[in-house]
UniProtKB/TrEMBL annotation:
This is Siderophore-interacting protein. Signal peptide: none annotated. Transmembrane segments: none annotated. Residues 27-148 form the FAD-binding FR-type domain.
């Protein structure tokens, strides 16, 4: 296995550079065990995983994702096969869902993933009923998106599905970071404690009774951002793919933030199960 210091050197180079980059790690396939289940606000459920196989888990930066693997409709658990540092998913493809790494503690041997609870979702239904002792396979992360610390300001925006990543980004930013963070939730009950730098203004955007993925309230809030002349901004935006179109145009056309200085990721799409994550940078 590649020495961990090599990843640290790669990450440090990007952190000090001008544009973001994805630093790859050996993807890995691990069986883990549910240790704890706890609600986080009214819409998220945090599951803490453990197990000896987490000893080789790679986690270095806030923006990392893993895939949980589930049995297919026929009840058969199909797993991808390791091929060097890659996974071959085969055909029929194993059933999986992608989630953000919320917290990883190598010292405690623990991994936290926050699940958005909603009716009819495969992983959501599993998370809502799972009990400590249950085992599941996790693939990844295949790498992490490293965001330089050289920008003047940072703009973060997303819906509830992006909240775990936004929370991790905020708590791991240098404490002198400045910028804006917007999070769309149904209402105050879905808000959670965050640990942003003092210079990052956090705004909770309430959707009310509108269904997720049907509102432009997040876009309207983001459009209030005014960037002082001469400031270099990085934008990180994620959520329902359709709702991101207007935000993407605003980031590109109005704020003048190009694809090398932004990541706009469709985490899900209304009406589409197992939406294949859509990135436009």
């Amino acid at each position: 296995m590649k020495d961990r210091s090599a990843y640290a050197d790669n990450i440090a180079e990007v952190l000090a550079g001008d544009h973001y980059a994805k630093v790859p790690y050996p993807i890995g396939l691990r069986e883990v065990e549910v240790l704890r289940v706890a609600p986080v606000g009214a819409a998220l459920l945090r599951i803490t995983f453990g197990g000896s196989e987490l000893a080789t888990f790679h986690s270095y930066v806030p923006d990392e994702h893993v895939r949980l693997i589930f049995p297919g409709e026929d009840g058969v658990l199909r797993l991808p096969e390791l091929n060097g540092t890659m996974l071959e998913w085969g055909n029929p493809r194993p059933v999986s869902r992608e989630y953000t790494v919320r917290r990883h503690s190598a010292e405690a041997g623990e991994l936290d993933i926050d699940f958005v609870i909603h009716p009819g979702g495969l992983a959501s239904d599993w998370a809502a009923s799972v009990t400590p002792g249950t085992k599941v396979h996790i693939a990844g992360p295949p790498g992490g998106v490293v965001i330089p610390e050289t920008y003047d300001d940072y703009l973060l925006a997303g819906d509830i599905t992006a909240l775990p990543a936004i929370a991790r980004l905020l708590e791991r930013m240098p404490r002198d970071t400045t910028g804006w963070a917007f999070v769309e939730v149904a209402g105050p009950a879905e808000e959670i404690p965050l640990d942003p730098p003092a210079g990052v203004a956090v705004r909770w955007v309430h959707r009310g009774e509108l269904a997720p993925g049907t509102s432009d309230v997040l876009e309207q809030a983001v459009r209030e951002v005014k960037v002082p002349a001469g400031r270099r901004v990085y934008a990180w935006v994620a959520g329902e793919a359709g709702c991101l179109r207007g935000i993407r145009k605003f980031v590109r056309n109005d704020l003048g933030i190009g694809p090398k200085d932004s990541l706009v990721a469709g985490y899900w799409k209304r009406g589409v199960a197992d939406f294949d994550r859509e990135d436009e940078r």
